[in-house]
Amino acid sequence: MFYILKKYLFMKDTPRSLKVSALITTLGIAFATATLVIALSVAAGFESSYKRSILDFNAHIIMLKDGGEIRDYQNVAFELEQFEGVKSALPFVYRESMAVSKGIVKGVVIKGLDIERLSKTSNLKLEEIGSNAPPRERPNAIMLGRALAEKLHIKDPSAINLLTGKNRFEKVEVGGTFESGLYDYDSQFAFMPMFEVQKLFDMADEATGVEIKLGDPGDAKVMADLLEEEFPYPYSFTTWESMNKPIFEAVRLEKIMFAIIVGTLVLVGMFNIIGTLVLRIIYKVKDISTMSALGMRRSFIRVLFTFHGVVLGSVGSLLGVFIGGFLTWLIGSFKIIHIEPEIYFLSSLPVKLEFPVVGIIVAATVAVSFVVSLIASTGITRLNLIEGLRT
Amino acid sequence: MFRTAGLSKKYDEGGKSVAVLNGLDFLCEAGEFVGVFGASGAGKSTLLHMLGGLDKPTDGKVYFNNENIYSKGNKELAAFRNKKIGFVFQFYHLLPEFTALENVMLPCLIAGISKKKALELASEAIGHVGMEGRVKHRPNQLSGGEQQRVAVARAIVMRPEFILADEPTGNLDEETGIKVFSCLEALNRGMKTGIIMVTHNPDLLKRIPKKFELRNGTLHAA
């Protein structure tokens, strides 16, 4: 029977109109599938970029103390690091300030922590000003977000004036820049050694909180629960997921909307299979009658046409995945689409081709093409085969 | 053996019931060669389609070897057409995508016979009609007579008990028509295949031993 299926699939005598109809159907499915692949890759790209940048810049869990700063932060950090699954625990302080350079004034959030340890425990890109080399060790220097440094027109090793806790500007040497990938962070934040921030802002030897990095960020929720049991109130633990819930919710919603809207396009493309198959059935009514007279069951004749529909759907879908995959690769590799970083926090359109998603798209399109082909081939059971034999 | 009892067929034409066959009784023994003739629209093709299990009668029964074929389910009826009956049509009805040999193999493949065995059976059948030299040709590369001979080979490839031939020479010139008819005659004599043939050709009718005229919905011996 497979021999008949194969033979019937590649009909050589198909009239041009049917070939064109099949081609249009296949291309329609291919373009719709390609659009779906690209749309979901862009959504996944945003999700992945945000996630990566957030995880690079922020801790996986932040420990805070209700009603004040943590005094014995070194001990607390040490105890935290004894926990299995905790990679590092880094005390920090936060202060808001103003930075002035070359007549430009910018608001800046200064995060005080152990920069050396930060560079070891995170994937943040730290660079010397004016070069791609890692920054030289300067104990009192400030590390500016790359976008912030650009805003302050800092291109060479230099110093900036920083508004301190004494309400006066103090000169601080710029040690380098960091890049998290998220414009929002890179344009607002600066790192300094913790003791230096405490000194500049007249703070006691206290920490605002402790940043905890885990072996696996996916364990953040479980670990936070465990740590909460070990360090009860007034301590509290917040995971990176709950801190950034709105952004991930927005991306998730974007993904669902893409899937619904572009998925509908694919569905419309799929329904073209019905038209193509109905045309083919009408054209082949004589052959269908003959096959029936030769003893072929109508159910198998339906299989012949359903198979054809499934092949159209599958070829269209695979072609679409190929086109979509190629364009996604092109966008991702050559960063050909630039976006506004002040709006999207990223400078180029991020893409990420997720193979499980591609697999689901292919499986779903094949399944839908099977269903619509089955619907179309029901026409065969209503055909008047006798008429087909009289002509 | 074919037998019909009170076979009737009515069609609905614009809300009006038109009777084509009207209580037709008919008997054809195994190995017999029977000719059926009659005016256009008398119901000759309808009779053949009903005998072949393609068109359900409005009333009456069709017995094949004493079994009412319309008491069978669709699956069994399809198997009956595949194994017990061979059809030959006026317009050949070869599938254009398949070569002559593949067209003849088709009933075997439908029956689930392996491709190798089907090839063997089809080659043998095609030899019976003298088309060995044209096996790789597709229908549009064959003349009308050649196409009909391939159709005859297709009808006999499963060694059916009966061939139902609906005006098999109606679309052929006289000489080619005689060749095809001779082919059927030879199969009837050599393989003892029963043949029920509808024809308008009086010369061919003369050569058929048992003839019926279909008139007013019933068969009349001629």
Structure overview:
The complex is a heterodimer of chains A (391) and B (222). Chain A has 2 domains: 2-54 and 246-390, no CATH class; 67-232, no CATH class. Chain A has 15 helices and 10 strands. Chain A has helices at 2-9, 16-57, 73-81, 115-121, 146-151, 183-186, 194-200, 220-230, 240-243, 245-283, 285-293, 298-334, 341-344, 355-377, 385-390, and strands spanning 61-65, 86-101, 104-113, 125-127, 142-145, 159-163, 169-179, 189-193, 209-214, 235-239. In chain A, strands 2-3-8-5-7-6 form a 6-stranded mixed barrel. In chain A, a hairpin with a 5-residue loop joins strand 6 (159-163) and strand 7. The model of chain A has no long low-confidence stretch (mean pLDDT 84). Chain B has a 6-stranded mixed sheet with strand order 6-7-8-3-9-10, sandwiched between helices. The radius of gyration of chain B is 17 Å and the shape is globular. In chain B, 48% of the residues are buried. By secondary structure, chain B is an alpha/beta fold. The longest helix of chain B is centred in the C-terminal third of the chain and has 17 residues, at 174-190. The A-B interface holds A 1, 3-4, 7-8, 10-13, 286-287, 289-298, 300, 385-386, 389-391 and B 45-46, 49, 52, 54-55, 74-75, 78-83, 87, 89, 91, 93-98, 102, 106-107, 109-112, 115, 138, 140, 154, 166.
Strand order of the largest sheet of chain A: 2-3-8-5-7-6
What's the multimeric state?
Answer: heterodimer
Largest sheet of chain A, described in full? 6 strands, mixed, barrel
Strand runs of chain B, count: 10
**Percent helix among the residues of chain A?**
55-70%
Low-pLDDT ranges of chain B: none
The structural class of chain A is alpha+beta
CATH architecture of chain B: 3-Layer(aba) Sandwich
Helix content of chain B: 25-40%
| Distance separating the two termini of chain B | 20 Å
Contiguous low-pLDDT stretches of chain A (5 residues minimum) are none
| Percent strand of chain A | 15-25%
Average pLDDT for all residues of chain A: 84
Mean pLDDT of chain B: 92
What coarse outline of chain B follows from CA principal-axis ratios?
Answer: globular
Count of alpha and pi helical runs of chain B: 7
Structural class of the helix and strand makeup of chain B?
Answer: alpha/beta
Straight-line N-to-C gap of chain A: 27 Å
Count of separate structural domains of chain A: 2
Shape of chain A: elongated
CATH topology of chain B: Rossmann fold
